[in-house]
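Weekly modeling sync, notes
Attendees: S.R. (lead), two postdocs, one rotation student

Agenda item 3: backlog of single-chain predictions. S.R. asked that every request posted to the team notebook include the full sequence so nobody has to chase files. The rotation student volunteered to paste the first one in as an example of the format we agreed on. Action items at the bottom.

Example entry:
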Amino acid sequence: MNQPSIRGGAVGLLGLLALGAATPALAQSPCAEAVQERLPALGCNRAFTLQVQEMAFHDELNGQPAPAGRRWVTLEVSFDSWMPSDLVFGLGYPEPLLVASLERQLYLLVDDRQVVRPTLPADSSLRDEFVLPRSGARRQGEVTFAVPDDALSQLSLHYYHDQYAPIVVPLLGERADPGEGREATGRQAGHDLFALGVHGAARHERWQGEAAPEGMQWLVVDLRGQGEWRTPVDARALDPSAEPDAEASLRRVMEYIEAPGLLQAVVDGRHGYVRDLALSTLETDPALLPDAWAGGEAVFPIPEAAEHVELVAYMPQFGGTDISSEIRPALRFTLEEGEREPEAEPRAVIEDGPIRFRVHDLARVDALAGHVAEEGEALVWIEAAMANQSEVGGMMEVGHRLRPRAPEGELLGVYQAGPMPQPEPFWLPAGDEPRHFQLLYRYPADVETLEFEYGGVAVVETLALPLSR
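Predicted structure, as returned to the notebook:
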């Protein structure tokens, strides 16, 4: 399976009736009955038949509870090979069919808006990758998905191969036209590989029962998209009536790899916050399907005092069939139009090749992020920033850049505004877009001047910062 990369026990139908305490009893039966009426359900293309035979909801998978706000649903599925003779003998296709990776080829579409990757139960007879050796061969087993723990209106199973047409197996309700979903959002951006759109955003003090960290709120963004990546295939593999030598293009799943660090809520043009993956229904590396406008909810912690809020999807260097190595521009969505405070004059600036390091402020503090100044100690807080003046973003670390020269100085932590621990390494975007952070040090109480050794990419410098009492 040539997917994009980055320079990167059996269940029965009775289980459907146990939809869960979080779902009203009146909503359970119609959902269960509707699915039962459709099973077994199947779909096919020229090479495969995919069939769903049974389905059940349950609370645990391999002894693990479902993520917050979700519940496991297990499907018993079978893959059958019907490799056509005109491809084998006419075009020289091998008869064995590879199912390269269920995680990257099989998806559940929920309520026409959420894409869910599969997980294999421990006792499943399926593997993530397998081969159907000949026409007529079958492989059967269980796959599990984490779906919202409430009443469902639409479910369909989608299978994608890199040579043959997609297979859709309808399970519940009717699918919407992807074009209608795209038209329903006024905030949309994209490029040749995929498009994204924001369908809603709101702040919450609590989300899925989880309180936001002190001084923070949860920003919940309904983010959806669609794959635009196309690759050449033999037209005959899609349509038996096509001429043997005719070519066609196949629209493919496009994965937004390394999205945990690249998809950010950018606050006041200075702070970049990444998702809380446990609370987000948007997959860790979202899969943008070619035939659906869907995604999930991305949940970010942001400061209560945030004024200007953007959702920014930074782009890596993608790789794959017919994908150029150029860096695509970031996709930006303004969520809240607040005022941005102008940058204060820095106390110190270090030019470190393409990286500009600035110290904006420093002060004594009694406590920060759980650290408290004890007798004879001083806690020193430094606000600093880095900006990347090149045309290519990259992963950076800041904790090692300002090392105290005096042996009694100690770095306690690196924080974002909030304060929250700064994930390291973090993505520093291109184009001179600054990222601010806070450094917390412990010093003797009588310290007057802080001396640091700055160790960077291109320079090593000594930096002295006077500390007022």
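Discussion: group reviewed the output briefly. The longest helix spans residues 25-38.
Action items: rotation student to repeat for the remaining queue; S.R. to check formatting next week.
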